[in-house]
Amino acid sequence: MEGFKKKIQHLAANYREEVISIRRHMHQHPELSNEEYETADFLASKLKAYGISYRTGVFKTGITALIKGRKPDRKVVALRADMDALPIQEQNEVEYKSMNKGRMHACGHDVHTASLLGTARILQELKDDFEGSVKLIFQPAEEKIPGGAKFMIEEGVLKNPEVKSIIGQHVFPEIEVGKAGFKTGMYMASTDEINLTIKGRGGHAAMPDLLVDPVLVASQIVVALQQIVSRHANYNIPTVLSFGQFLADGTYNVIPDEVRIKGTFRTFDEEWRARAHDHIARISQSIAKASGAVCEVFINKGYPFLVNDDIITENAVRSAEQYLGKENVIELKPRMTAEDFAYFSQDIPGCFYRLGTGNKEKGITSNLHTPTFDVDEKSLEIGMGLMAWITFNELRY
Ligand code: NI
Q1: Å from CA of 83 to ligand 1 middle
Q2: Are 303 and 190 in contact (CB under 8 A)?
Q3: What are phi and psi of 217, to 5 degrees?
Q4: What is the separation of C-alpha 144 from the centre of its chain, rounded to a whole number of angstroms?
Q5: Structural domains for the chain
Q6: What is the mean pLDDT of residues 85-97?
Q7: What is the CA(355)–ligand 1 centre distance, in A?
Q8: How far is the CA of 160 from the centre of ligand 1 (A)?
Q9: CA 108 / ligand 1 centre spacing (Å)
Q10: DSSP state at residue 229
């Protein structure tokens, strides 16, 4: 076992430069969700060069690949990386700065993909040393509901051969490079987009008695909906309801006909999630009705919540402790952010963990989805090796 870990560490060190250059290439050429065509071509060229058999066009720009060890049917473990970028203008002044205006890999998906290519190369090199197979999933459109994971599953990525478990990693600037974070059970929230349109009767603001004021009705609705979290949500189930858009396009002396509201609902329980949607609709519509207005409710269901399988995650923690040292493995807290890896984790047992990419000393501290986000590139060597080691152990269980 020790010997095998050393082999992985050695290969990760050998492939470091190549993987960093892959990451930088991707970072310079970011593409938005569902537009990852050049990215997909680039990935395919790498898989081809490594002699790994792959399939393109799985849900448009997605790619799957298969590495067969000895007794390839014994167990199949999937590894997933997402590959889309965000509509952000990069502000880092680095040699690998984004060349695509208004597009940036500000969520580290370039790191996930480059690291997975490194892991793939390591496992391909060592394929005679393990039993079972490894399925690589390069997934498009993680950043945009409904997400690419759902469609890749519908296209059968978890079948033929049947995948037993799945592992994914995500960069995490809040923890220092050299460390990794894990969490069993519920880890990331489900997410839904709430759209409300309150229709009243607008007119001269000096004559409200003749109008049905949708601004007032919408305000009452926003306040009342806060009670869903404080009065209806069970205190054991973390829940968030936030509104970020409230559009009432009148002016000093004009009350508009309608108000549009957008918000997000997040939680960790499918049954409660469905009930909360009903509450949102009922409360909004009842308040509108009581005031003589109408409220149209449209809830765009997003990702389910992400649950990490206890056994696979505990095994991954053990592997990480062996690979990084016990002191470098951190227990994470649940988060209200969302991830479409959740679709995989709802379908088969999975583990989604966080790779430390921050470095306070070097000033690498910016958060995900910001124009100054970056990673300590040492994390690439660690990321590819750690995932190879976790996979090797997961295949044995
Ligand atoms: Ni992300």
Answers
A1: 9
A2: yes
A3: -60, -45
A4: 10
A5: 2-189+304-394 (3.40.630.10), 192-301 (3.30.70.360)
A6: 97
A7: 12
A8: 27
A9: 6
A10: I
Please give the Cα distance from 388 to 13 (Å, whole number).
13
Distance 185 CA to ligand 1 centre (A): 19
Is 247 strand, coil or helix?
Answer: strand
- Which helix (H) or strand (E) is 315 found in, with range? helix 310-324
pLDDT greater than 90 at residue 3: no
Length in residues, the chain: 397
- Measured in Å, residue 170 CA sits from the centre of ligand 1 at 7
What's the order of all strands across the beta sheet hosting 240-248? 240-248, 258-267, 190-199, 294-301
307-333 per-residue burial string, b: 16 or more CB within 10 A, e: under 16? bbbeebbebbbebbebbbeeebbbebe
In the chain, the N- to C-terminal Cα span, in Å, equals 14
CA distance 192 to 338: 10
Residue 397: per-residue pLDDT: 83
pLDDT digits (tens, 9 = 90+) for 273-319: 999 999 999 999 999 999 999 999 999 999 999 999 999 999 999 99
- If you search the block for the tokens 């921050």, which residue do you land on? 358
Ligand 1 centre from 20 Cα, in Å? 19
Per-residue pLDDT at 259: 98
Give 360 Cα–ligand 1 centroid separation in angstroms. Answer: 21
Structure tokens at 23: 């990451």
Three-class secondary structure of residue 4 per DSSP = helix
CA distance 357 to 178: 8
Residue 331, beta-bridge partner list: 182
The pLDDT score that the predictor gives to residue 269 is: 96
Q: In angstroms, what is the span from residue 101 Cα to ligand 1's centroid?
A: 20
For residue 109, the CA-to-ligand 1 centroid distance in Å is 6
Burial class (CB in 10 A: 0-12, 13-18, 19+), 361: exposed
* Whole-number pLDDT of residue 2: 76
What pTM does this model have? 0.93
Statement: residue 379 has pLDDT above 80: yes
